[in-house]
TrEMBL record:
It comes from Rhizobium freirei PRF 81. Gene3D superfamilies: 5'-nuclease (3.40.50.1010). Signal peptide: none annotated. This is PilT domain-containing protein. CDD domains: PIN_MtVapC28-VapC30-like. It comes from the Bacteria. Residues 1-127 form the PIN domain.
Amino acid sequence: MFIDASVLSAMMTDEEDARSFATRMQPATARMTSPLAAMHAAIEIAAILDLSPTEAGEAVRTFLQLMNIQLLAVPPRAAFVTAEAYERYGQGGHPARLSLDDCMTYACARYYRQPLLSKSDRFNQTDIELA
């Protein structure tokens, strides 16, 4: 399962749907995210909890360890899959209106052949398998 920044942020700030995400993650034998998603979550968490970006980054690192979520490198191939995703689902001409960050998340989930766990309903309008 590839975990999006929105889920990390929701779980770490105890949003309303945090427990639902934890339940959905529980049966996954593989849990992973990218450095981009981890730092995107850290920036959101820093703003929500009034922490410095460094403090939030350390909190994310600890959370990933506790939840057994692997932090995987963004593979070079993901750059090209991101471009394809942006062309197909990007903000310009598709109802999903994926941002560049969203397209990179899509590309990593696709590259690692994992279902995507995200808070965003935009991914429902793509062909990515959802968790």
